[in-house]
Amino acid sequence: MDRSEPFYGPDFSQLAREDPEVAQVLLDEVARLRGGLQLIASENLASGAVMAALGSSLTDKYAEGYPGRRYYGGCEVVDRAESLAIDRAKALFKADHANVQPHSGASANLAAYAALLQPGDTVLAMALQHGGHLTHGSHVNFSGRWFDVVSYGVRRDTELIDYDEVRELAIRHSPKMIICGATSYPRLIDYSIFRGIADEIGAWLFVDAAHTIGLMAGEAIPSAVPYADVVSFTTHKTLRGPRGGGLLCTEELTQRIDRAVFPFTQGGPLMHVIAAKAVAFGEALRPDFKRYAAMTVENAAALAEGLAAEGMRPVSGGTDTHLTLIDLRDLGVSGAEAERRCAAAGITLNRNVIPYDPEPPTVTSGIRAGTPSVTTQGMGVGEMKEIASLVAHAVRDPGAVTSVLQRVKVLTATHPAYPRDE
Ligand code: DSN
């Protein structure tokens, strides 16, 4: 067992001694990450500093409440972590207010609904099948169960959001809140159009920026903050921080958002995660994060272009963000089968529904591939061309698995995940 891994923090050797079974899981996961290409669009590789904060004694502290207003004693030290996270988030996103306590993107979204709506209110949101999210009105989620959700989608011909449809639905249904933001929409969203529609009918505008927040922070794409009443985000995707969520809002909504997170939808905050969020915001405030965000987008465009050249059609013709959604119908391979074939060849990505998909979500006609992790590993446009070729070979020909795996090893050897000198 290699006990010299720097990213586990100072206590890995103790874990290895006291619980070798769990220690081995940690080692195996790092081996898995280092041994293949990680193209899941919602994942990234956090820094050693983020990991150190996560693996700290701050996990022990109960701190219900907010800095300076806690329901427990002994919070004066963890208060500093949360204040740092809030101040850095406000500076990074140029937001009036930040709440850094949501445990995840879904928890942040639950709090946003709670802050702005009553059960039974009408919401207008993007359909999951067109790139939305479970929390945007799926019937198996609180959002679809407790709210009256009207869905908009993308046009069949362009596969772009149909803003005319959004406006028509908004006028017809008078939703109290309009949601935009997506998990598998590769293009920019025009927040100014959504703001105009929300203003026209007197609705709140809630932007779920879980996927794109890091690109916004790095100014690689326009920010939603100037347009939205509330923005939810995750810290572990393009932002490259710890697994978690957050909320940004206008001054006016500060109290509603804070109360919706605690005490309405959450109890004690995870102070070790909040400290790690502060670290990640600090990292994203540095100039090199701008380069990272720009490279993530440039890489996704190169990957989409490379896949298109291999006969794998990118939905909407390309991407403006960190991900591409590929329509596999011309290849006669389902998304589920493509996911399996790629996995066998050392490429981790996920099957994904495409707009108007004839297949169910367990099968799908598409795959989604993202560049946050491989960009963190220092790969660039040249490597994206190679990755496109590898994905195409793996998907088309299960017999190519050995040769693809060998080429994957070359890429991961030259651009390792968690380099040892970090
Ligand atoms: N699971 C996330 C994603 O992969 O997009 C969304 O919650």
Automatic annotation (TrEMBL):
Pfam families: SHMT. Pathway: Amino-acid biosynthesis; glycine biosynthesis; glycine from L-serine: step 1/1; One-carbon metabolism; tetrahydrofolate interconversion. One of its GO terms (cellular component) is cytosol. Transmembrane segments: none annotated. Residues 16-390 form the Serine hydroxymethyltransferase-like domain. Its cofactor is pyridoxal 5'-phosphate. Its EC number is 2.1.2.1. Homodimer. This is Serine hydroxymethyltransferase. The gene is glyA.
